[in-house]
Specification:
Radius of gyration: 24 Å
CATH architecture of the largest domain: 2-Layer Sandwich
Oligomer: single chain
CATH superfamily of the largest domain: Dihydrodipicolinate Reductase, domain 2
Strand content: 25-35%
Shape: elongated
Number of helices: 14
Mean pLDDT: 93
Low-confidence stretches: none
Length: 424
């Protein structure tokens, strides 16, 4: 087996960067023996001296990117610093200086991926981004290679490990949201600022990437409607459980009449659905296509270690790939329009506090009926002078459902704005 040395410039030594550094160090000999690729971390860009290991070789770390981009002996630049401005500039400069690049930056690929792919094509460089979606699950490789003739029309699943960890513990232990979030941060599943995770932006960026690959049409982060889990309460999770559902943050991309719909939202799933059993920080993605029916991929989706395996896999793949063209040509050769969100259909969960008096349910049912919204099941819990109604509807167009909710909110018997969640 021929031996190929790959010298790496690593940008950032945070959660993912430090895991990449340690993984290459730990698995170096096994990778070399198994693939013939000799991975060498040549330089590391890190401005925080506290992140530099005490036993790091002299001269390995730098605060100056030019030490990496101008070094002709460095073959691959790995970007794990996050953000979209400096990260883009670094990858741009690296490719223009003849270096292949690997990134775990889903926000960057989802917002500025088209420009990066164009540059990679023009410069004849590899741009790999497997680590940007679903941690250790090789979803991008599967979709770009194995599913190229599958006729994919639906991609949906759990693509954020932080929120799945939180919702799993709320469901299993009925734990406090804030305490569980703090534990997720302690375990490295959540960032110090968890807004992108719990707010849905992280999952939205990932779904933009997956939709672009699946439907061969560019979807950016701005094209994805997303809602996070910040407003999901323990009471919502308990009611869902009582009705036979689990609550999960779902990313869903669908091709409807040759138009694209991409959304992220918390939803109730029947306990019989495979996604309801995906626990902790695991991710799972369903692919549906004309030629394949339905398949599911699952695995660890949060934390530095699972993500670092995808980064290292990309580096080795670059070393073993002679032809730049196939995987570097952007697969977005179509320009599809987007399906109107209010025309999509869904069943819904509604929780609303109402006055505990006769005729209330009849008023709400009447409004729902006028808008074509049919009730599938209902719970009612007494709360002193108020009652808490929990309703599951049959599938209906979203514009009809939200029109009914808007009218119901105006009833004098409604004491608080209704809480609504989709039902998958």
């Amino acid at each position: 087996m021929d031996r190929r040395t790959v010298r790496i410039g690593l940008l950032g030594l945070g959660t993912i960067g430090s895991s990449v550094y340690r993984l290459i160090e730990k698995e170096h000999d096994q990778i070399l023996e198994g693939t013939g690729v000799d991975l060498q971390v040549a330089r590391v860009l890190e401005v925080d001296a506290n992140k530099i290991p005490a036993d790091a070789p002299s001269g390995l770390f730098t605060r100056d990117f030019s030490d990496i981009v101008d070094d002709p002996t460095i073959d691959v630049v790995v970007e794990v610093i996050g953000g979209t401005t400096a990260a883009f500039d670094f990858l741009d400069a690296a490719m223009r200086n003849g270096k292949d690049v690997v990134t775990a930056n889903k926000q960057l690929i989802a917002s500025r991926g088209e420009a990066l792919f164009t540059l990679a094509r023009d410069q004849k460089r590899h741009l790999r981004f497997e680590a940007s979606v679903a941690g250790a699950i090789p979803i991008i490789k599967v979709m770009r290679e194995s599913m190229i003739a599958a006729g994919l029309h639906t991609v949906y699943g759990i693509v954020n490990g932080t929120t799945n960890y939180i919702l799993t513990r709320m469901f299993q232990e009925e734990g406090d949201y804030v305490e569980i979030l703090l534990k997720a941060q302690e375990l490295g599943y959540a960032e110090a600022d968890p807004t992108a995770d719990v707010g849905g932006a992280d999952a939205a960026a990932k779904m933009a990437i997956l939709a672009s690959i699946a439907f061969h049409s560019r979807v950016t982060l701005n094209d994805v409607a997303f809602t996070g889990i910040q407003n999901v309460t323990l009471a919502d999770v308990r009611y869902a459980k009582e009705l036979g559902f689990a609550v999960k943050l779902i990313g869903a991309a669908r091709l409807v009449d040759d138009r694209v719909s991409v959304r992220v939202f918390p939803a109730l799933l029947p306990m019989s659905h495979p996604l309801a059993a995906i626990s902790g920080s695991n991710n799972a993605v369903f692919l549906q296509g004309d030629a394949i029916g339905e398949i599911m991929l699952m695995g660890p989706g949060a934390g530095g270690v699972p993500t670092s395996t995808a980064v290292v896999s990309d580096i080795v793949s670059i070393a073993n790939t002679k032809d730049v063209g196939f995987l570097q040509s952007c697969s977005c050769y179509r320009s599809l329009s987007f399906y109107p969100a209010d025309e999509m259909e869904s069943a819904f969960f509604i929780k609303v506090n109402v006055a505990d008096e006769a005729g209330v349910l009849a008023q709400i049912s009447s409004i729902f009926g006028e808008h074509g919204v049919s009730i599938a099941s209902m719970l009612q819990k007494g709360r002193g002078d108020e009652a808490e109604l929990v309703i599951i509807t049959h599938p209906t167009k979203e514009k009809h459902f939200f029109a009914a909710i808007a009218e119901a909110k105006g009833l004098s018997c409604c004491k608080r704005d209704p809480m609504t969640l989709r039902v998958l």
